[in-house]
Amino acid sequence: MWMMLRVIPIMWRAVRPSRIVDMPAVVNTFWLPKGYEGLTFFGQILAPSQAEADRFNSGYSTMKNHEMIHLRQAQACGDSWLRFYLLYIWYWVKNRACLTFCSGGPAIRRKMKHAAYLLNPFEIEAYARMNDLNYLKGEATEWRKYAKMSLKERMKLYNHSI
User: What is the SS3 assignment for 62?
Assistant: First the structure.
């Protein structure tokens, strides 16, 4: 229970994404799904262990770059964490519904674990660009292009990138 409550001060003290230069990693196992290395949360990175948090905080890695891309995406969403998270959840719910009810959706879901997450336009951009440590010099707005694609088109794009 106390782990759940630890996020309240993070949300309360959150500043606009444009005012953040670097995101520190903090340990929080409650909000982080099992198997995930990090999660961007209102300007901080939630990590599953102190070792993971130390890894994020000690230097720049591809996973740190992935999470920093989410910061840039929030900046591109009207410089608002709330707008970023509402859009993120909207794309996830929309993917989940299509993976359940649309033609071809159930087949994609069977082939791809966590498809609603991995086919989220924000995640497609972050995963596609996380190895490019120069990507953050510009705006992270490729997600807009992916959002216009159908789920099948995003699936094809994902299959070509792995």
Answer: helix
